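Quick question, first post here. What does this chain look like in 3D?
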Amino acid sequence: MLMTEYDYDTDIAVQREEAYEAGLSKGLQQGISQGISQGIKQGVYQEKLETAKNFISMGLSIEQIAKGTGLSLEVIQTLKGSQEV
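> Answer (accepted):
Ran it through. Tokens below.
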């Protein structure tokens, strides 16, 4: 009878360990996916800022730059102000 209890306890321990490892693996995958997604979004935003800076140096209006980049007028005004310094 002692052997049966030990096997049951071992089985439960193994199941818990497997569930823990599966959860850890899933959590890591989600974290990696979220990190990649966030990095891509930041990269796209940085590219828009660089494009806006180029448009500013070309003399385009703030409205044209906003339309061409998708950035807000406020962001472009801030960029334009920082380039005049």
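The longest helix spans residues 2-57.
DSSP finds three helices and no strands in the chain.
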